[in-house]
Amino acid sequence: MNVKSTTFPLVNPLSKPILYSYWRSSCSWRVRIALNLKEIPYDIKPISLIKSGGEQHCNEYREVNPMEQVPALQIDGHTLIESVAIMHYLEETRPQRPLLPQDVHKRAKVREIVEIICSGIQPLQNLIVLIHVGEEKKKEWAQHWITRGFRAVEKALSTSAGKYCVGDEISMADCCLVPQVFNARRFHVDLRPYPIILRIDRELEANPAFRAAHPSNQPDCPPELPNK
Ligand SMILES: O=C(O)/C=C\C(=O)CC(=O)CC(=O)O
Q1: Over the stretch 79-125, which tens digit does the pLDDT of each residue have?
Q2: Cα(203) to centroid of ligand 1, in Å?
Q3: Residue 13 and residue 26: Cα distance in Å, rounded?
Q4: Half-sphere exposure of 183 (CA within 13 A, CB side)
Q5: Residues near 72 by Cβ (< 8 Å), separated by ≥ 6?
């Protein structure tokens, strides 16, 4: 693993941000999109969640993120963890290309969709949970929780969506939706009942910030991308 012990806990406030990321971690992906949208230059330190039982569990990385998960972002002399907290930090310190709408009701809608995905769906189909569920049951388990959550997301979008999740501006909700759709496809969820989710996902496919953040464009993506 190429994480040097000198990298932490001290972080140089002037150095380029470093994102500890895994190519198909949906939580890392959210942050990559946010950084790209805000045009914040950053370096990636890949953390393999599967190599040698998972580099996220090694002593050095536990110093960076005691939750032993990705992402972690070293920025402005701080080490930040948890993708939603990181996106809010970026929003508050780099207000260019806002990821939250001005209107308070629309902001609430963005947060609602973010919360459904980041608390109500993704943690239930995360690697650590699926390991406990077991190989035999994991597909059905993931499908169950993604379907349950997508039903609620689709309902929310039926009143909030314009071109994107909330109105016509890209927001944190879109940063969370696209990686979750990828996960849904990975677990072969039938997405036909969610036409608004599919339309927004298609809309964002061509966006350069989203495209650059895609797992297939990550330095640690294996040459043959499985389950794309
Ligand atoms: O290559 C792997 O199978 C390991 C881990 C992941 O995909 C990441 C997740 O745990 C899913 C997620 O981010 O939602």
Answers
A1: 999 999 999 999 999 999 999 999 999 999 999 999 999 999 999 99
A2: 24
A3: 27
A4: 33
A5: 19, 20, 64, 65, 79, 80, 81
Query: What's the gap in Å between 24 CA and the centre of ligand 1?
Result: 6
Ligand 1 nearest-atom number relative to CA 128 = 10
Minimum CA distance residue for ligand 1 atom 8:
25
Nearest atom of ligand 1 to the alpha carbon of 28: 13
Pocket, ligand 1, Cβ cutoff 6 A: 24-27, 49-50, 122, 126-127, 183
Determine, yes or no, domain membership for 217: no
Q: Residue 49: give its domain's CATH number.
A: 3.40.30.10
- The reply to whether 227 falls in a domain is no
Atom index in ligand 1 nearest the CA of residue 25 equals 13
pLDDT in tens, 118-159: 999 999 999 999 999 999 999 999 999 999 999 999 999 999
Instruction: Looking at the structure, tell me whether residues 92 and 112 fall in a common domain.
Output: no
The alpha carbon of 25 and the centre of ligand 1 are apart by a number of angstroms equal to 5
Do 87 and 113 lie in a common domain? no
| Number of helices (H), then strands (E), in the chain | 9, 4
